[in-house]
Amino acid sequence: MAMRRREDDEVYPNAAGIDVGGSSHWVAVPRTADDQPVREFGATTCELHAMADWLLACGVDTVALESTGVYWIPVYEVLEQRGLAVWLVDARQMKYVPGRKSDVQDCQWLQKLMSLGLLRAAWRPAGEVCVVRAVVRQRELLLTEQGSWIQRMQKALVQMNLQLTEVLTDLMGMTGQAIVRAIVAGERDPKALAQHRHARIRASTAEIEQALTGNWRDEHLFVLGQALAMFDSLAQRVFECDAKIEALLAPLGCHEIELAGPGKRRGKNTPQFDARVALARWAGVDLTRINGLSVTTVMAILSETGPDLSRFANVKHFCSWLGLCPGTKISGGKVLSARTRRSANRVRQALKLAAMSLSRNDSALGAFYRRLCARMDKPRANTAVAHKLARMVYFMLTRGEAFVDQGQQRYEEQQPQRSIDALRRRATALGFQITPTAQVA
Questions:
Q1: Which residues of 132-156 are buried (b: 16+ CB within 10 A; e: fewer)?
Q2: Rounded to whole angstroms, how far apart are CA atoms 5 and 186?
Q3: For residues 278 and 262, which has the higher predicted lDDT (pLDDT)?
Q4: What is the SS3 assignment for 232?
Q5: Which pLDDT score is estimated for 364?
Q6: Residues paired with residue 370 on neighbouring β-strands, in sequence order
Q7: Percent of all residues in the chain with a pLDDT value above 70, rounded to a whole number
Q8: Are strands 38-42 and 62-66 parallel, antiparallel or unpaired?
Q9: Average pLDDT, whole number, for the chain?
Q10: Is 402 exposed, middle or buried (0-12, 13-18, 19+ CB in 10 A)?
Q11: Rounded to the nearest 10 degrees, how much is the dihedral formed by the CA atoms of 242, 246, 247, 249?
């Protein structure tokens, strides 16, 4: 029979709990700390400092803060500046308050769980990492908005029966942009528009000319011009984000590192500055040497975690935080489910996108991805490869190791021996012994 934890077995006796809200915050301290152990404070800066004064007067040294939207950020920053140990707690850990639910009971239940040591603090990176993360997330948001306006341009073209996307794979490529801008400028002749064709386009000039024969309705031309103007405005905002990120990364680059070999091919969404050098000087290693990790992927990883991963006990803890490890749902000695949990972790998403790019990569990682796809479905193989990439990132950042690609041929040469070793271990476990047959000349 399980024993209940007694009230005098408190792990954090001087802990407080805060139920965060949009307009006010409810704070609960131990009952022996004040005659009124539960108080309500406003959301203004003066009220937050008054809350900190009251907590310090009550002898509180640890505060459990519920992560509600973005309302917890000002509270976290003020309490941390005042010298309190702030624990950011996921609301799913608290489950439900027994009995009737109210803000008062929420903060009291949070304080009780914190005092008994039943909560875990979420990980929040250092201050300089949070600054870079905010700008990088803004850049990703702008790129997403750009994509939505490209879809609107495509819709306006289709409504005019201009089947430009049937002959061009990228509407915003060199040829596509030149044609769209010429249309907005007033050009209507399909022959003149088809002359913007780049030499590398597979479709011929005649095919492009045929696809650009439409009805040219005024309302759709107006929408096309508006969408192109929004695209250009967002592109300018992205350029400003690149300049801000470059300025933020400059003082963080404290490592002198020489990059081996040329960089990877620049994509459309790659920052305008030399982000590879800046990120390598910040992290101390060049993560772009890992197959599948582009400059934008590395920037997303470092902006979320930073180069210091000492908060994670080991690589398994890091992969578990990313949500890339198998689940352990066991009851009665039987595994009920081993699926990875759903997560909105941005590093996880970046690694899974990087794993998808390895499907046609001539490297050991590419061969590993294709071997997994041959024996399981692609989503599971993608998660397994993302897990492998996460381990490489962890070891490079913690040990300072350089990544060396063994190549696809070397990987395929090692596979037969690994299969033989696995068969021998399985035969030994069953009490048998494998004897190789003589090779036939």
A1: bbebbebbbebbebbeebbebbbeb
A2: 78
A3: 278
A4: helix
A5: 84
A6: none
A7: 91
A8: unpaired
A9: 87
A10: exposed
A11: 130
Q: Is 167 or 8 the better-scoring residue by pLDDT?
A: 167
List, as one string, the DSSP characters of 336-385: EE-PPPP---HHHHHHHHHHHTTTT--SHHHHHHHHHHHHS-HHHHHHHH
How far is the C-alpha of 268 from the C-alpha of 143, rounded, in Å? 10
**What average pLDDT does this structure show over 110-125?**
86
Per-residue confidence (pLDDT) for residue 438, from 0 to 100:
65
Report d(CA 68, CA 72) in Å as an integer. Answer: 6
Q: What is the pLDDT of residue 441?
A: 44
Q: What is the pLDDT of residue 2?
A: 43
Instruction: Please enumerate in sequence order all residues whose Cβ is within 8 A of that of 41, keeping only pairs 6 or more positions apart, or say none.
Output: 24, 25, 27, 47, 48, 50, 51, 54
Distance CA 227, CA 296 (A): 25
Running DSSP on this structure, what letter comes out for residue 165? Answer: G
Element spanning 231, H or E: helix 218-249
Task: Say if residue 294's pLDDT is above 60.
Answer: yes
User: pLDDT tens digits, residue range 321-379?
Assistant: 999 988 777 777 787 777 888 888 899 999 999 999 998 888 888 888 888 888 888 98
Strand, helix or coil at 90?
coil
> Whole-angstrom Cα distance, residue 157 to residue 163?
7
Per-residue pLDDT reduced to its tens digit, 12-33: 899 999 989 889 999 999 998 8
> Which helix (H) or strand (E) segment is 18 a member of?
strand 15-19
pLDDT of 261 reads 63
Q: Are 264 and 295 in contact (CB under 8 A)?
A: yes
- Give the global pTM: 0.83
Question: For tokens 């929004």, what's the residue?
Answer: 230
Beta-carbon-side half-sphere exposure of residue 56 (alpha carbons within 13 Å):
13
Residues in the chain: 441
Determine the Cα–Cα distance for residues 34 and 27; give it in Å rounded to an integer: 12
Nearest-angstrom CA–CA distance, 173 and 179:
10
* C-alpha–C-alpha distance, residues 411 and 413, integer Å: 5
With a cut of 80, say whether residue 3 has pLDDT above it.
no
Here the tokens at position 434 are: 């494998």
273: its two tokens: 């500055």
pLDDT at position 217: 93
- Would strands 85-89 and 329-331 be described as parallel, antiparallel, or unpaired? unpaired
Calculate the dihedral angle through the C-alpha atoms of 423, 427, 429, 431, rounding to the nearest 10 degrees: -170
Helix axes 315-322, 346-356, angle to 10 degrees: 90
Q: What is the DSSP string of 284-326?
A: SS-GGGSTT--HHHHHHHHHHH-S--TTSSSHHHHHHHHT-SP
58 in Cβ contact with 84 (< 8 Å): no
